[in-house]
């Protein structure tokens, strides 16, 4: 960064501090093309995939994500199909693996993420320390809601959690103008017990976007129907899926 750019950033930061605004994050305009860069591109050499139609909840899908629990850095995004009023999803060219799904609607989201390989042995003390360190991280986001935490207790062991993060205060968009709405994301966060406490070692944005106030903290649900979906070298039809009872 040259001297002029550094001065500009310092002036901007001072102005944001005086007005109560936050510096913009990359992709703060909420445009889909920015968010889509987060996702892993399909593998043209892979011939497998999966598809399905979610009839409950009875409303259009925002997105569906597939994540292999053994390598959660990889996040694939489905195509939302027109079947049953945009309630169908299709993953093509998925490498052979076992996947967990995340299903996002405008006003709620569902997930079947495997957060630990074995039994969850975290103690109450572990959970409190994890909640504290996650809450203190990512200062841009003023609110953090930890939905599920699982892992193995003991020094050197790991844990993962699924979190909603949002900012309920003013911010600037990528054009340095007032953001029209509030920034929100779902994150998969993994941590390690380093002896003196738990430390965040990696974070994965799942669905960042700008929303109106009423959608900053949508309800979260865990569903086993979205867990452990085995993809081979052929298209797997999951059929009709119900994530809620009638």
Strand and helix layout:
Blueprint: H1 3-19, H2 32-36, E1 48-56, E2 63-67, E3 76-77, E4 79-81, H3 83-86, E5 88-94, E6 97-104, E7 109-111, H4 124-136, E8 143-151, E9 158-166, E10 182-193, E11 198-205, E12 209-211, E13 220-222, E14 229-231, E15 235-242
Parallel strand pairs: 1-15, 7-13
Antiparallel strand pairs: 1-5, 2-3, 2-6, 4-5, 6-7, 6-14, 8-9, 9-10, 10-11, 10-12
Q: What characterizes the major β-sheet?
A: 6 strands, mixed
How large, in whole angstroms, is the Cα Rg? 20 Å
Q: Please state roughly what percent of the residues sit in beta strands, choosing from under 5%, 5-15%, 15-25%, 25-35%, 35-45% or over 45%.
A: 35-45%
- Number of helices, counting only DSSP H or I runs of 4 residues or more: 4
How many individual domains? 1
Average pLDDT, all residues: 88
Principal-axes shape call: globular
Return the string of H and E elements. HHEEEEHEEEHEEEEEEEE
Helix content: 10-25%
Straight-line N-to-C gap:
57 Å
The total beta strand count reads 15
User: Which structural class fits the helix and strand makeup?
Assistant: alpha+beta
What distinguishing features does this structure have?
5-stranded antiparallel sheet, 15 strands, alpha+beta, 246 residues, 6-stranded mixed sheet, 4 helices
How would you portray this structure in words?
- By secondary structure, this protein is α+β, with helices and mostly antiparallel strands.
- It has one domain.
- 16% of the residues lie in helices and 37% in strands.
- Strands 2, 3, 6, 7, 13 and 14 form a 6-stranded mixed β-sheet that branches. Strands 8, 9, 10, 11 and 12 form a 5-stranded antiparallel β-sheet that branches. Strands 4-5-1-15 form a 4-stranded mixed β-sheet.
- The longest helix is centred in the first third of the chain and has 17 residues, at 3-19.
- It is globular.
């Amino acid at each position: 960064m040259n001297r002029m750019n550094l001065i500009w950033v310092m002036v901007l930061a001072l102005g944001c501090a005086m007005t109560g605004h936050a510096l913009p994050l990359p992709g703060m305009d909420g445009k889909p093309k920015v968010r889509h860069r987060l996702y892993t591109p399909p593998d043209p050499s892979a011939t497998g995939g999966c598809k399905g139609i979610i009839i409950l909840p009875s409303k259009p899908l925002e997105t569906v994500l597939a994540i292999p629990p053994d390598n959660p850095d990889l996040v694939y995004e489905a195509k939302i199909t027109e079947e049953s009023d945009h309630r169908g999803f299709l993953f093509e060219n998925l490498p052979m693996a076992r996947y967990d799904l995340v299903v996002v609607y405008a006003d709620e989201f569902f997930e079947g993420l495997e957060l630990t390989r074995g039994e969850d042995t975290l103690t109450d003390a572990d959970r409190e320390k994890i909640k504290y360190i996650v809450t203190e991280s990512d200062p841009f986001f003023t609110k953090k809601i930890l939905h599920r935490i699982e892992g193995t207790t003991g020094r050197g062991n790991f844990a993962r959690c699924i979190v909603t993060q949002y900012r309920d205060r003013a911010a600037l968009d990528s054009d340095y103008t007032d953001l029209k709405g509030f920034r929100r994301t779902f994150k998969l966060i993994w941590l390690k017990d380093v002896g003196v406490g738990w430390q965040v070692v990696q974070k994965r944005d799942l669905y960042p976007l700008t929303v109106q106030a009423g959608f900053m903290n949508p309800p979260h649900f865990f569903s086993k129907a979205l867990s452990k979906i085995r993809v081979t070298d052929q298209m797997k039809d999951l059929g009709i899926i119900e994530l809620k009872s009638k």
